[in-house]
Design a protein that fits this description.
With about 280 residues, the chain is of the alpha/beta class. Helix content is about 35%, strand content about 20%. The protein folds into two domains: about 60 residues; about 190 residues, Rossmann fold, CATH 3.40.50. The strands form three sheets. A seven-stranded mixed beta sheet has the order 5-4-3-6-9-11-10, sandwiched between helices. Strands 1-2 form a two-stranded antiparallel sheet. The structure holds S-adenosylmethionine (SAM).
């Protein structure tokens, strides 16, 4: 059977788990043959000899198991990252968090020699690695409570050649952070309410990367508290689409210079940037 015929034969098997079934079969074929899209497009009429292996992958995918965990890859901000089961798959909307941090760092008042950043909940490391690639004079401490995530994030930093700009550290929020020179904290923390019924595919991802407490915004509030307590000037976070109002009320008790919310590609509220006043109230 040719590659083209194989794609046609199996497309139906994935139509209930994805709206791009043929595309996903193509991705599996490229993964098995270790070939890229250009090769595939030039070789649709070639015989495909790994049907048994392909069937196995399709069977797994048909249970809603994420494609990214099968091929161990995900794209983020135009780069390819390693992903592994046990660590959250990066989402496209998190790319906006990178843009927000870039906005803040570009406007930092003095041309600082080094911008010191803390990332809370680094997961696969996509945020820290992208910031290290995009900001020349940055030093990052990236923390997580999940050892598997820290190992994977380190692999991604090495893959992208930025391991000398990021220190990966095990820490529950700020517990293991004694540094007093942090300019900005960035985080995409778990922010889903514990009781929320997740879609089938998300159930394969680690729950401690998703659930933020019985309401959902508890960890976000802890991060706001502790960032303010430590006199860190900027905080940029992703949040749930329904958390703008509760967080706006919560922020009334803080000495902020500015705060603003941003929306994702689908126009849902998705995150915020806070600039805190310093201890002198400036
Ligand atoms: C939503 S995921 C974000 C992963 C990655 N930064 C991204 O954007 O794809 C949240 C991450 O926070 C970590 N996490 C959960 N609770 C934490 C805590 N108390 N302290 C530090 N990290 C935590 C989880 O292990 C998970 O890797």
């Amino acid at each position: 059977m040719t590659i083209k015929e194989t794609i046609r034969k199996y497309t139906n098997e994935l139509k209930f788990v994805t709206h791009i079934p043929a595309k996903e079969i193509e991705i599996f074929i490229m993964y098995l043959l270790k070939k890229n899209t250009i090769w595939l497009h030039l070789n649709y009429n070639k015989d495909f000899e790994q049907e048994k292996e392909l069937e196995k992958l399709i069977k797994k995918r048909a249970t809603n198991y994420p494609l990214e965990y099968i091929i161990n890859k995900a794209s983020f901000y135009g780069e390819v990252f390693i992903v592994e089961e046990g660590v959250l798959i990066p989402r496209p909307e998190t790319e906006l968090l990178i843009d927000k941090v870039l906005e803040v760092t570009k406007n930092m008042d003095n041309k600082k020699e080094t911008i010191n950043v803390l990332e809370i909940g680094t997961g696969s490391g996509v945020i820290s690695v992208m910031l290290a690639l995009l900001i020349e004079n940055i030093k990052i401490i990236a923390v997580d409570i999940n050892e598997k995530a820290l190992e994977l994030a380190k692999k991604n930093a090495i893959k992208h050649g930025v391991e000398n700009k990021i220190e990966f550290r095990s820490s529950n929020l700020y517990t293991n952070i004694d540094e007093t020179n942090i300019d900005l904290t960035v985080s995409n923390p778990p922010y889903i309410a514990n009781e929320y019924k997740l879609p089938e595919n998300v159930k394969f991802e680690p729950s401690n990367a998703l659930f933020g407490g019985s309401i959902g915004d508890e960890l976000l509030k802890d991060i706001i508290d502790q960032t303010s307590e430590r006199n860190i000037k900027y905080l940029v976070c992703e949040m749930g689409y329904d958390q703008k109002n509760p967080l706006t009320s919560y922020l009334k008790d803080f000495d902020t210079k500015t705060f603003s919310f941003y929306q994702d590609y689908e126009k849902f509220d998705r995150g915020f940037t806070i600039q805190f006043k310093n201890k002198k109230g400036l």
